[in-house]
Amino acid sequence: MGVTSVTTTSDSATLTASVFPNGVDTHVFFVWGTDPTFKTCTQTPAWPGKDIGAGEPPIDGSSPVVVSVQITGLTAWQFYYCAAQATNYFGTVTGEATSFRIVT
Fold first, then answer.
1. Which position has the higher pLDDT, 45 or 3?
2. 1, 83 in Cβ contact below 8 A?
3. Quick check: bond before 48 cis, omega within 30?
4. Degrees, nearest 5: CA angle 94-99-103
5. Among residues 33, 15, 27, which one has the least CA distance to residue 70?
6. 3-state secondary structure the chain
7. Would you state the pLDDT for residue 68?
8. Which residues of 43-70 are buried (b: 16+ CB within 10 A; e: fewer)?
9. pLDDT per residue over 29-59, tens digit each?
10. In angstroms, rounded to a whole number, what is the distance separating the alpha carbons of residues 1 and 39?
11. Residue 55's pLDDT is what?
12. d(CA 26, CA 48)
């Protein structure tokens, strides 16, 4: 599991990841921010509706699921760091972090 692509505009980014829930209900979200250690970060639920309190059911099944999120209001020339996270009965897994930069 991890971020598979990042697409940017002048002030936003779309983060995409592939998650394998392995047949267990799984909540998927992205953590992102300007701190590469994620000690201060934002947690955003992944789309399509794979909640963290969004009132929608978690994903399950035995096939990989592609999820994404669009984040807006980003600052030009700033480096950002992001990772996908999945939480289920067995715990929380954080994928490998990646970085991106908004270029105007």
1. 3
2. no
3. yes
4. 150
5. 15
6. CEEEEEEECCCEEEEEEEECCCCCCEEEEEEEECCCCCCCCEEEEEECCECCCCCCCCECCCCCEEEEEEEECCCCCCEEEEEEEEEECCEEEECECEEEECCC
7. 87
8. ebbbbeebeeeeeeebbeeeeebebbbe
9. 899 999 998 888 888 877 654 443 344 456 6
10. 21
11. 42
12. 13
Q: Quote the CATH superfamily of domain 2-101.
A: Immunoglobulins (2.60.40.10)
Residue corresponding to tokens 């096939």: 63
Among candidate residues 52, 44, 48, 102, the one with its CA nearest the CA of residue 77: 102
Q: Which amino acid is at 89?
A: Y
